[in-house]
Design goal:
heterodimer, A: 498 residues, mainly alpha, Sodium/glucose cotransporter, 20 helices, B: 90 residues, two-stranded antiparallel ribbon, 2 strands, 59% helix, elongated
């Protein structure tokens, strides 16, 4: 099977270039709209994000390139069992409901900037604040590297087959990483959170168009779902079967780890802080909770259609399923070609919107939790802001270098680890909002031991014993230690109001 | 969260996770709009979870109806006041 798309014409590439230039223009508008030279204004947009921008930035941040590329390939491999993806994307919003109302109220009252600000306020225990901040930076830093690599791959895909770039895949990949990272660097430095949120809004909109394009082009090319199911009954009946007990165990494990882990993305927590008011946040979560039904389901259908009509892909080729589908559609008609352009813009949007949010979030944590937290506590707001911007640039440079050096590395396994790490923050952020006895020492002990258990299991070759993610075993130990320590303690630690 | 809310989520989880369809192999493969029945039940369960969550999110949150301390005007005035204080940024 030819996984290579037919080359995009210069006019099609021009449309994508205009879209990217538009992102730069938004950065400029964000820069002109800044109110004060403060960390709060730069990293949270002055906490005045309105409804539609909040919906689209939450959407674009939560749905990465993986939703389009990875989920389609995964459905091809495991069949309808990947319906769990619709449920776990919904479960993320349910998990928000468990802590966002209280966290939002506290953030507004105490002016939180980073997730660790809440921990500082709640526990007043520096080892926990610093450890939690480091865990978040490591977990999403790895995710950033993956997005940078995905940028290079996407640009490589754009120019594949173009006569001017024949045999120059590596320079095209490197150029793609540099070019797209450069665009992010410019609009993020100019406009900070405002630019990121506004570009996310555009990118979220393009991503929605991309899902519509994907659905249209699949049905246009292959026909109805009924025909695909008949085909699958003959060629791959196992992909239609409901899960057995091990499958059910994996299903539940995915629901829990994705709901808890993804809701604790630092960039997602900061989007809770940045909402204009509680009503705006509530309404945007209402929209978010229905989006998986109309977006993730599309990836599911695309994967199944691919399995039915392009049945001979090797496991390694399945991640290229979307590219293969694009080629099939491109060959059909002129409309098909333009739908593919929209889909490619959506893929770029999904990757860039996740990357820019991560960069902003990591630089805010390094600046507020570490630079201002213990390194240079007497620094002025302006110095912190300058340091934060410098930090963002350094992150981009490191991401670019890492992506170029690791071009052929498979990061999927490491990507899975981010959830194993982030889920360990559950007692610190969720339980602590409701249980006043929980104390910093116990929480940090649970956090460290939970991570050791999770990573230890993975390194020992047990990433999912009995179908359950290693991170959840770590979380069980973590909860035991954190809650146990709270129950046996004499309550001498300082606790702050909730 | 209240007990009633948690119980409803637990019931919806039982419906959404397709653990019981392995006992009805032929019925699970019946088609609705091209999807196998067990997939439809999972998607329907997911839609019900969304609807239940929406109902919960429609209610104002604790402290939401408190005075205008969260209005942008109030905040910018408070920020201006804080910034005007000497050493405010330290």
């Amino acid at each position: 099977m030819n996984a290579q798309m037919s080359p995009l014409t210069w006019s099609e590439l021009g449309v994508i270039a205009i879209y990217l230039l538009f992102l730069l223009a938004i950065g400029l508008v964000g820069w002109r709209s800044r109110r004060t030279e403060t960390l709060s204004d730069f990293y949270l947009g002055g906490q005045s994000t309105g409804l539609w921008v909040l919906i689209l930035t939450l959407y674009a941040t939560q749905y990465s390139g993986n939703t389009l590329l990875g989920f389609t390939g995964k459905t091809y491999r495991v069949g309808f069992s990947w319906t769990v993806s619709v449920q776990f994307m919904t479960a993320i919003v349910v998990a928000y409901l468990a802590f966002a109302p209280r966290l939002f109220g506290l953030s507004r009252k105490h002016g939180f900037l980073t997730p660790s600000d809440y921990l500082k306020h709640r526990f007043n225990y520096p080892p926990l604040t610093i450890t939690a901040s480091c865990v978040m930076v490591v977990a999403i830093g790895n995710f950033l590297l993956a997005q940078m690599m995905a940028m290079g791959k996407a640009v490589e895909g754009l120019f594949k087959g173009n006569e001017y770039f024949q045999g120059n895949e590596y320079p095209v990949y490197c150029g793609g990483v540099l070019f797209l990272a450069g665009i992010i660097l410019i609009y993020e430095t100019l406009g900070g959170f405002r630019a990121v949120a506004w570009t996310d809004a555009i990118q979220g909109f393009v991503l929605m168009l991309g899902f519509i394009a994907l659905l249209t082009l699949i049905f246009h090319r292959f026909g109805s779902l009924e025909i695909a199911m008949q085909q699958l009954e003959q060629s791959a009946p196992e992909s239609l079967a409901p899960p057995d007990w091990l499958g059910v165990s994996q299903w539940l494990s995915y629901l829990v780890i994705v709901a808890l882990g993804c809701s604790l993305y630092p960039q997602a927590i900061q989007r809770i802080y940045c909402a204009k008011n509680a009503k705006t946040l509530r309404l945007s979560l209402i929209v978010m909770v229905f989006l998986p039904l109309v977006t993730t389901t599309v990836s599911l259908v695309a994967g199944l259609m691919g399995r039915a009509f392009i049945p001979d892909l090797s496991p390694a080729q399945t991640d290229s399923l979307l590219t293969i589908l694009c080629r099939e559609v491109q060959l059909q008609s002129e409309v098909g070609r333009w739908l593919v352009v929209v889909l490619f813009a959506a893929i770029l949007a999904a990757i860039m919107s996740t990357a820019d949010s991560i960069i902003l979030s990591i630089s805010s944590m390094i600046t507020k939790d570490h630079y201002a937290g213990w390194w240079r506590t007497n620094s002025t707001e302006l110095e912190r802001l300058q340091f934060g911007k410098l930090c963002g640039w350094l992150l981009i440079v490191l991401g670019v270098l890492g992506a170029i050096a690791l071009r052929d590395t498979d990061l999927v396994t490491m990507l899975d680890r981010k959830l194993d790490l982030l889920v360990q923050l559950c007692p610190a952020f969720m339980i602590s909002l409701y249980w006043r006895r929980l104390e910093g020492r116990g929480v940090v002990l649970g956090l460290v031991v939970g991570i050791v258990v999770a990573i230890g299991l993975v390194l020992a070759g047990y990433a999912k014993p009995f179908g359950v993610h290693a991170g959840l075993y770590g979380l069980a130990v973590n909860l035991l230690l954190a809650c146990g320590a709270a129950l046996v303690s004499d309550g001498c630690e300082t606790r702050h109001g909730l | 969260m209240q007990k009633k809310v948690l119980i409803i989520y637990a019931i919806l989880l039982l419906i959404s996770v397709p653990w019981y369809w392995q006992f009805f192999p032929s019925l699970s493969q019946a088609r609705i709009l091209g999807f196998p029945m067990w997939v439809v039940s999972s998607l329907l369960g997911s839609a019900l979870v969304s609807a239940h969550t929406m109902v919960l999110l429609l209610k104002p949150w604790e402290g939401e109806l408190e005075p205008a301390s969260e209005s942008p005007e109030y905040r910018s005035a408070a920020e201006a006041f804080r910034d005007s204080k000497p050493g405010a940024s330290q």
